[in-house]
Amino acid sequence: MNNSTGGPAFPELVSASGITLRDFFASVIPYDKEIMEDISRCDDQDLIERFGTEEEKDEYFDLVPARAPMPFKNIELRTKLEARGRAKLRYLEADAMISERGRP
After folding, report:
1. 95 pLDDT exceeds 90?
2. pLDDT at residue 68 is higher than 70
């Protein structure tokens, strides 16, 4: 992933500590409803494997036998994991937009 922020989104209106162009692109990119819904349709184990932190993985995988459904203790973690997935897709698109800037 490209870690360049692209600089300030509104350099004339905001100080250098304001929103970056990368954050701006990620926030305004219209998302593909189907792709975003695919994230919501992932099973719990797939979500934790793809978007969970090491601590979250350790906590939940230690409790579940292999190939068993992942029993989340609460909806908050699932919501957090889905949000991470959507954010990852938005930032991938924002990074692509930044890398294409200035190309002929």
Report:
1. yes
2. no
* Residue type at position 80: K
Nearest CA to 51 out of 22, 89, 81, 8 is that of: 81
Q: Where are the domains of the chain?
A: 31-100
Q: Does the predicted TM-score (pTM) go above 0.70?
A: no
Which whole-number Å values give the CA distances from 84 to 9, 17, 37, 52, 64, in the listed order?
23, 24, 13, 9, 23
Q: Which 3 state secondary structure label does DSSP give 8?
A: strand
Distance, first Cα to last Cα, the chain: 22
Provide the 8-state DSSP code for 69: -
Number of neighbours of residue 47 by Cβ within 10 angstroms: 22
Q: In the predicted model, is pLDDT for residue 1 greater than 50?
A: no
Backbone angles phi, psi at 20, to 5 degrees: -85, 165
Chain Cα centroid distance, residue 61: 22
